[in-house]
Design brief:
Helix content: 55-70%
Number of domains: 2
Shape: globular
Number of strands: 0
Structural class: mainly alpha
CATH superfamily of the largest domain: Hypothetical protein, domain 2
Strand content: under 5%
Largest sheet: none
Length: 211
């Protein structure tokens, strides 16, 4: 199994968006509302996943503050996390649960370079074996740190709600239903996700999101 298409630049996103718009009139309509889509690529590696763990269930401002303290304290790499005792991790703002998750990630000894050429399902399987990393985090890593063009995150509530509005669904689709709906967007499911996230922001701004 190959890794498939890799998104490396804005032209890749535009290509995927054009492919989706040609085959799905709802996607075409969403793109007319959203305009150009963001690239959203990030680096890969340990620190990206550790940052994701730090960001769980806290505000963006709090997560950024904690992450800055961790970087300043030398706690953003595996060796630093392994060396740190509870007091050091607590001092930068990690809860007891996140201390455990950070150490689990450091001890997992993941070969991040090898992940670049690992098929996406195996990437998700590898990452979700680590305590504190769920399917959503693993799928987001595959999308934006590895640039995979055909990965989706059906457990994302914004994607679910955007799909509900865009496709006039009676209810917000659950994870399983949205995963099945997304099959029609292959091999550009990551671009479909970008469209839906952008459309969600537009719908929210225009009062289109309901409880």
């Amino acid at each position: 199994m190959s890794v498939g298409r890799i998104i490396v630049c804005d032209d890749c996103v535009r290509e995927g968006a054009a492919w989706l718009a040609e085959r799905d009139e709802r996607m075409a309509a969403a793109l007319r509302d959203t305009g150009p889509l963001p690239l959203r690529l990030r680096p890969d590696g340990f620190d990206q996943l550790l940052n994701a763990i730090v960001s769980q269930q806290v505000s963006v401002a709090s997560a950024n503050a904690i992450w800055t303290r961790m970087q300043e304290a030398g706690l953003s790499d595996p060796a630093g996390v392994r060396r740190a005792d509870d007091a050091a991790l607590r001092a930068v703002g990690l809860s007891r649960q996140k201390m455990r998750y950070a150490r689990a990630l450091a001890d997992a000894d993941i070969d991040y370079v090898a992940l670049r050429t690992t098929p996406s399902p195996e990437v998700v399987k590898t990452l979700t074996q680590v305590s504190g990393i769920g399917a959503w985090t693993a799928e987001i890593y595959a999308m934006f740190s590895l640039g995979r063009a055909d990965v989706f995150a059906p457990g994302d509530l914004a994607l679910q709600e955007a799909a509900r509005i865009l496709y006039d669904l009676p209810d917000r689709p659950r994870e399983r239903a949205l995963r099945e709906l997304a099959l029609a967007w292959s091999p550009w499911r990551s671009v479909a996700a970008r469209i839906l996230w952008a459309y969600y922001r537009v719908a929210t701004r225009h009062g289109g999101i309901s409880d």
